[in-house]
Amino acid sequence: MPQLNPNPWFSTMILTWLIFSLLIQPKLLSFTPTNNPTNKTVTTKPSPWTWPWT
After folding, report:
1. pTM of this structure
2. CA distance linking residue 27 with residue 18, whole number of Å
3. pLDDT at residue 41 greater than cutoff 80
4. How many Cβ atoms from other residues are within 10 Å of residue 26's Cβ?
5. Backbone φ, ψ for residue 13 (5° rounding)
6. A single Pfam family, by name (predicted)?
7. Which of 10, 35, 40, 46 could form a disulfide with 6 if both were Cys (CB 3.0 to 4.6 A apart)?
8. Residue 10 and residue 13: Cα distance in Å, rounded?
9. Which one-letter DSSP state was computed for residue 53?
10. In terms of Cα–Cα distance, which of 37, 16, 13 is closest to 25?
11. What is the pLDDT of residues 2-40, one digit of tens each?
C-alpha cells in the first residue's frame, strides 16, 4: 500500500509545522484585540411576555 510510505509526506508535514510554529504563529499572537472584553452587568430584569390568548 503506497499511502503507508511516510517518506514523501513526513518531511512535508514537518516543514509545514515548522513554518507555522516559527513564522505564522508569532505574527498571529502579536495582534491585540481592538475591543477588550468587559463584564456586562444586567441592570434591569426583563418583564415576562404577555400572551394575548391567555
Report:
1. 0.44
2. 14
3. no
4. 9
5. -65, -45
6. ATP-synt_8
7. 10
8. 5
9. T
10. 16
11. 567 777 788 889 999 998 888 888 888 888 777 777 777
Q: Which residue has the cell 495582534?
A: 31
Q: How far apart are CA 13 and CA 42, in angstroms?
A: 49
Place of cell 444586567: 42
DSSP string, 3-32: GG--HHHHHHHHHHHHHIIIIIHHHHHT--
Identity of the amino acid at 14:
I
Which bin fits 49, alpha (ψ -120 to 50), beta or left (φ > 0)? beta
3-state SS, residue 36: coil
